[in-house]
Amino acid sequence: MYGAILGDIIGSPFEFDRGDKTKDFELFSWGCRFTDDSVMTIAVAEALMETGINADEETIENAVQNQMRKWGRRYPRAGYGGRFRQWLMANHPEPYGSYGNGSAMRVSAAGWLYPDLEQTRAVARATAKVTHNHPEGIKGAEATASCIFLARNGKSKEEIREYVTGEFHYNLNRTLDEIRPFYHHVESCQETVPEAIIAFLEAGDFEDTVRNAVSIGGDTDTLAAIAGSIAEAFYGVPEELREECRKRIPGNMRKVLNQFDRELGRECEREETTEIVFILDRSGSMAGLERDTVGGFNSMIEKQKKEKGSVLVSTVLFDNTAEVLHDRVDLEKIRPLTEKEYFVGGCTALLDAVGGAIHHIGNVHKYARMEDVPERTLFVIITDGEENASRYYSAKKVKGMIERQKSRYGWEFLFLGANIDAVQTAGRFGISEDRAVNYNCDSRGTMLNYQVIGEAISVFRNDARIDESWKRQIDEDYKKRRSDWE
Q1: SS3 breakdown of the chain: % helix, strand, coil, rounded to 5?
Q2: pTM of the entire predicted model
Q3: CA separation for the pair 352, 434 (Å, rounded)
Q4: For residue 196, which of 168, 217, 181 has the smallest C-alpha distance?
Q5: Domains of the chain
Q6: pLDDT for 269
Q7: With 70 as the cut, is the pLDDT of residue 270 above it?
Q8: Is the pLDDT of residue 314 over 80?
């Protein structure tokens, strides 16, 4: 996918014929940025990895629709067309008969993930149909994915040309010199995909392909994204350009790129970083559980230190106020928690602790270089009672903050509550039911919390996902003992 994203970024300043039709331009100019082409490429890739190679077309279509809407809403100003923007925001989205080039620019993952050409084309067709169900829209996606499949399987340019001409009837006998004088900004597959393929066919390497595509003019970011996705499969992408790509996209996109590399059996280009934020109750009602909390926390941290990967840890302890114990400290440097730091007393300023932490971590990410933003962020919130002491943050404000970070940046939040309805309370804060659990507020329940949290963090660090089953042990313990008491 590097090829598609790099093509998009490099081509973005020249879109709408804003520049001479030349190959001689600064590769990464001031106006370079990722656009909707990259966002949707990432969305489709995540959907296809989620469904696996044996999924049927309906399953793929549903996953693609869900991921495209999720990512599109995270980046609502990425440059979508009018009808696609309406589709993103519709309550009941339906295909709208488009033959635009969006189906081809987002399809590159399909060219890499499947073992044969027939399945590759079927998957490409499924990714197109959720919006671009016009025959030309479908054809553009299938042709692009087919080129990628053939290129990565060692076929020559002539073999790729013959296949595309025979199967899709595109005219690939023109030259770029013939195309440039008459080419203008068009966004249809039938007037973009053949030109992008020709840009690849005439090139000598990956960079030359992208320069060729941009030199055509018109919808340069999409032309270069399509051409670049094919060129990556044929030539590979130089290391320095891969690194440049990673610098210019946010952490949640880099996370998908890394996952895609792992899916293909490649080594990740850069060690991923996980941001973990613990919000821990130390109000008076936690009395008697100090040693269990300290022991459980320390045991969890020590187990995490034995796993591979970079982790930044923040720990906020709250009673009447919120105290920051760790502020984005490298996991390896976390010292054991003691009862000198974890002592109980006071009320429950839960909202101030959560809101303050989100505000702080969010600002750090906002002003950091893109390559320094962690690929994944997880908040773990543990409380044994209702909010009763916050002065700065309301439930409404915290809910808005959590929903924004979840939808836009893919942050995860886990909520563990005792002596309250944890699911209902979490819902008031914008945390979904499958991320909330009631626990027994005693020695056994406290120790189980940290065991389960540690297991969930391990999965999150490796897969960037938290399954609904993460809370099963806590839930079963809570229900069983509640039943015994009753």
Answers
A1: 60, 10, 35
A2: 0.70
A3: 24
A4: 217
A5: 2-263 (1.10.4080.10), 273-485 (3.40.50.410)
A6: 56
A7: no
A8: yes
